[in-house]
Amino acid sequence: MKKRMLQRLFIAILTAAVLAVICMFFVMRWSFSRGLLDYVNNTEQERISKALVQAYEERGNWDFLEDDPALWPESLKQIMLISKEEPRLLLLDDKLEPLYGNIGTKKNDKLSPIKNNGRIVSYLLVPPQKKLSTPYQLSFIKQQELAMLIIVATILLLSIFISVIVARRLVRPINTLTKGIHQLSTGDYTVRVPVTSTDELGRLAGDFNALALALEHNEESRQQWVADISHELRTPLTILRGEIEAIQDGIRPADAKALDSLHSEIMRLGRLVDDLYQLSLFDVGALTYRKDGIDPISILRQVMLLFQDEFKRKNIVMTAFFPESLNPPLIFGDAERLEQLFTNLFENSLKYTDSGGEMQIHCRYGEGRLYIAIQDSPPGVPLPEHEKLFDRLYRVEASRNRGTGGMGLGLTICQNIIKAHEGTIAACPSPLGGLQINISLPLIEELQ
C-alpha cells in the first residue's frame, strides 16, 4: 500500500530530528569529555605548581631534588612520581636547563613558569593526560552520559509529537486543495478553498480560487454563448420556415419578392455562420494572417470610397483628416484583415448613426504608432457599456431588434484583428455625441 503524504512527511521530519539529536548527543559527549579532560589537566598542573613553589620557598633552591626521592615530603612524592622511581614531569631552571625529569619535550609542549616573589625560578612541563582514567572521573562521565541519554530520549519524544503536528499542519491545506480540485474536475466551479497563510501553500490556494473563478466565469460565458447562438440561429431559421410554409400553403405566392426575402435571410444566416467560424479559428489559433509592410491609411481610403454612396443615401456627412506624407510609415499587417476591420467599423457607424448625422475619421502618427479615431454622431452608447461592446454577441439594444441591430460579432472580430497586429482598440464617447472607436497600431520601425 502506498504511503500517504502525511506518513511521508512525518517520517521525513522525524528522521531529520532523530539524526539531529543523535549528532547532538555525540557532539555533546565529545565536547564534555574534552572539556573535562582539559579541566583535569589544568587543575593537575596548577596543583603541581603550587606544591613546587611551596617546596622552593621552604628550601630556597632546587638542590633537594638531587636527594633520594624517599626523603622528599610525601605530598611531593605523590605529585612528582608515577611510580617509586619514575618521574612524571619535567622541571627546568630559569635558563631552561633540566633540573628534574627526563620525559622529553615536543615542539608544541607548553612550559609553565614557576615564580617566587615575582621572579621566574623554573619552568614546569606536565604532559597532559590523553584520557580520563581514575575511577572518580570515569564514574562522573557515566553519570553525565546517562543524563544526556535521558535528555536525548525526552527530545526524541517531543520530536515525535511535534512531527505529527507539523505534518498534519502541512498536509491539511494540501488535502483541502485536493478535495477542491476533485470538485473542480467534476464541473463544480463554485468551489473555493480557504486561504489560511501567506506562504507558498497560501498563494497556491489563492491561485486555485482565481482559477475556479475564471472557470466559473468561462462556464457562464459558454452557457450565455450557447443561448445567444441558439437565439441568433433560431430567428432567421424561424423566418425561413414561416416564409417557406406560407409559400407551400399558398398563402404567399412564390414570386421574386418572396425569393428575395428568403435570399436575404439565408445571406444573414451565412454571415453569422462565417463570423462564428472566424471567431472559432481565432480561439484555436488557426486563423492565418499574411502580413507584409502595408499602408493602412490607403486601405482606409479604399473602404471610405466603398461606403461613400451608402452614407450619402442616409444623409450622413463623412469627413476624413489624414496626415500628409509622401512616404507614409508602414505597419506589418494583413491588408485583407485590415480591410475587414475598417468595413466592420464603417458598417457599425452607418447602422447606428441617425440620418442627417456626421462621421469623422482622424489619423495621426506619434510615438512609433499610428492612431486612428472613428467618431460618429448620436445616438451614443452609455458609458458603463463601452467595454462590453467588444464581447461576443453583445448589443446595446435590449430588444434585439434585428432591423437596426447586428449580431454582436463585428466589434469582437475587430478586436481579434487588432490583437493579431499587436495593437489596441477601445471605445469612448465621441465629441460629436455618438461613439468613438480608438485604434492604435505599431509602425514597422517601432517593431524593429
Description:
16% of the residues are buried. The longest helix is centred in the N-terminal third of the chain and has 55 residues, at 5-59. The chain folds into three domains: 1-186, no CATH class; 200-283, Orthogonal Bundle (Helix Hairpins), CATH 1.10.287; 292-447, Histidine kinase-like ATPase, C-terminal domain (Heat Shock Protein 90, 2-Layer Sandwich), CATH 3.30.565. Mean pLDDT is 79; it is low at 398-405. The protein has 448 residues and is of the alpha+beta class. The protein is elongated and about 155 Å long. It has helices spanning 5-59, 74-80, 135-185, 200-248, 256-283, 296-313, 335-352, 410-420, 444-447, and strands at 90-93, 98-100, 112-116, 119-125, 292-294, 317-321, 331-333, 358-366, 369-376, 424-429, 435-442. 54% of the residues lie in helices and 14% in strands. Strands 6-8-9-11-10 form a five-stranded mixed β-sheet. The protein has a four-stranded antiparallel β-sheet with strand order 2-1-4-3, covered by helices on one side. The protein has nine helices and eleven strands.
Give the topology.
Elements: H1 5-59, H2 74-80, E1 90-93, E2 98-100, E3 112-116, E4 119-125, H3 135-185, H4 200-248, H5 256-283, E5 292-294, H6 296-313, E6 317-321, E7 331-333, H7 335-352, E8 358-366, E9 369-376, H8 410-420, E10 424-429, E11 435-442, H9 444-447
Parallel strand pairs: 6-8
Antiparallel strand pairs: 1-2, 1-4, 3-4, 5-7, 8-9, 9-11, 10-11
Helix pairs in contact: 1-2, 1-3, 3-4, 4-5, 5-8, 6-7, 7-8
Keyword list:
9 helices; 3 domains; Heat Shock Protein 90; 5-stranded mixed sheet; single chain; 4-stranded antiparallel sheet
